[in-house]
Structures are given as structure tokens and as C-alpha cells.
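Model it.
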Amino acid sequence: MYEREEIIDMAKDWVERHLQEQNVQQQRGQREQIKAQHALAGAVKVFQRLGEQVQRDLTAFCRGSGDGSLQYQEVMEKKFRVRRAAYPSVTLDVELTSTTIEYERTERFDDTSRYLTHKGAFRIWSDLAGNVQIYRNGTPFVDESEVSQLLLEPVLTYIETI
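Modeled.
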């Protein structure tokens, strides 16, 4: 059997470990809350930079290819669209909701064909220092040009294969 002091020491060790674990979880939660606040505060600015990058890339493509049928439209502060109205048509809608960037690409070969729709999303997140970035599947993009490429490449490939 255990001595009374040993039992008290065992209980004390267990309680201390439990309190330490609670403290660690609380600190982790506080850090995540700080990162979420930074992300929310910087989301619109990051989204606007992405829209500007998409517009620059689209302009460069149109100049280089001589195809002016693709148009960039800023729908609202938190939404933009890349569109080709003539058949075969393509529309890319990109929208910011809180800290999520959702995109939907719709392709239609002609007025008798079905719409093909592709959807996806990115997350805007921050580190503790307040560096706000766009993430995909937990991995940050280096900058907005990588995201622009990921969004525009399927659109441009669709247009070029026609």
C-alpha cells in the first residue's frame, strides 16, 4: 500500500499536470484568437491586392495575345469577376466572405451546351506578428501573383484551346 504522503504527492502531481494542460490550451486559444483578429482586420486589403494582381495579369495576357474579349469587373469591394461573354463563354467570380475567398468558374461552349462549374476556396490567415496571407489547404501562398495564376490559368487555357 501507499503511504499517505505518497498518495497526496501523486494527487498533487496529477492536479498540477492537469492545470498546466489547461493553461497551455488557454494560451493556444488566445494565440489563435489574436491571429483570427489580424486576419479579419487585413482580409479586405489582401483581397483588394489580389484583385489588382488579377487585373494586371489579365491585362498583360490580353495585350500579349491580342484577345480583348476577357474583361475584369470589380463588382463590389469584396467581389470581382473575369468574364468573356461571347461563346465559348467563361466567367470567374471571386468573392471575399469574412476571411474566406470563394471562387467559381463557369464555362459554356455554346448556347445549347450545359454550364460546367468549378468551385474552390482559399483562407486568409495571419501569424502572431500580423502578417496576413492567403492560404490553401493550410499552406500559405508566397504572394498574390501565385493566387492569380491559380485562378486565371484555367480561364486562359480554356480560352486558348478554342
